[in-house]
Amino acid sequence: MSNSESFNRPLETDKLAEQRIEDARLRDMFEQRLKAYRNKENKLETVYSDELEIGMEVSETVEVTEDLITAFAVFSEDVNPIHVDDEYAKGTRFHERILHGAYSLNVISKLLGTRLPGVGTIFGGLTDLNFHAPVKVGDTLTTYVQVAAIGEKGKVTFDVGAKVGNVDVVTAKAFVIAPRKKIEPNQSRPES
What is the CATH number for 162? Predict the structure, then answer.
């Protein structure tokens, strides 16, 4: 390439440089999570249907960051500007970017499928889903699942939701079929 060609090439803008830095940070975050998954660092538990008790609960707490919002937008493909565009968000009633409501639903599903009841759980659905308040950068979000009712054949109802401090931001009822203990050959299945 001649000097005149390199001289005439457009210079990288500050915005492009910022995007490259953000892209690198998101790639690093993804690689760390993928490594943890591959190394089985994520907690996998099982509480069988006959071990469940009303009131049992598990939760997960995260600090909401711009990176978390951006990463969820990328993975979910929900790039609504209320989540990803500072200028757009300033003109809304929230005045800033907010976390996707679906993020809490994702964590609820994760808790039900990996912690309580855990591995082997079949998700049946949600009812009475309500989003009460926005979640913003800097908020500490606690997502929870709590056993509300235990039915026959492993059918369990959970109170689920997310809070920022003492404020409910998401509430719902979740229905699952909890895993039953593995039956060994020559062992009959107990009635339940």
Answer: 3.10.129.10
